[in-house]
Amino acid sequence: MKKVAIIMGSDSDFPIVSKAVTKLKEFGVPYEVHVMSAHRTPDAAIEFSSNAKKNGFGVIIAAAGMAAHLAGVLAAKTTLPVIGIPCKSAAFDGMDALLATVMMPTGIPVATVAVDGAANAAILAIEMLALSDDSLAEKLEKMKADMEEGVAKKDEAMQLKVAEL
Questions:
Q1: Which of 13, 52, 54, 97 is most exposed, with minimal Cβ within 10 Å?
Q2: Core vs surface per residue 75-109: b (16+ CB within 10 A) or e
Q3: pLDDT given for residue 90 in this prediction
Q4: Which helix (H) or strand (E) holds 31?
């Protein structure tokens, strides 16, 4: 099975990124987590993404706040899918990171999830890997069925509450 790389621009992003790690663990997907900066360690980021495919990665998740150029720098040097997680910061409430992550030039796409949306980034990475891994596809189908069942149970409980009024 291919690995997922999770790259964060700063260790302060780990509380957000940990949600992706948890989700990948739940699905049994191998991963690596690294801190690299598009601005402070651009050579390391470029080297990582340039070699990611040959090093066994299938998807890269990049989390960054503020200027949030990390996902774009990584995407520029690989043909692997890159998923950006814009991280909320004190300034602009994460809108700056969202725009910097989603507004990529033609030819350098970055799939972008919601601000602080690490769990969805992991699920999207798993869906990408599941295109060639039936066991992952089955786990995703079970997750969706469990979610549907959970909502149905909540609806049943709500109907009882409403009937009691």
A1: 54
A2: bbbbebbbbbbbbbbeeeebebbbebbeebeeeee
A3: 83
A4: strand 31-35
